[in-house]
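Title: Prediction job returns without error message
Component: structure pipeline
Severity: low
Priority: P3
Assignee: unassigned

Description:
Job completed but the reporter wants confirmation the result is attached to the right record. Sequence as submitted:
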Amino acid sequence: MGRNNERNIKKHNDKLHKAQNKAKQAEIARKEKLKEIIKKFNQKDQE
């Protein structure tokens, strides 16, 4: 039984893609929060 069999490769890739998606979602969430903060700041600035 080799280390690089199909099942192990698939398991590794699934774990890797899951981690990448999680990081991507976190980045999107941070950008959204930043937009909200900037929006609030600009509203206060205009008043």
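Comment from assignee: result matches the submitted record. Residues 36 and 42 are 10 Å apart (CA to CA).
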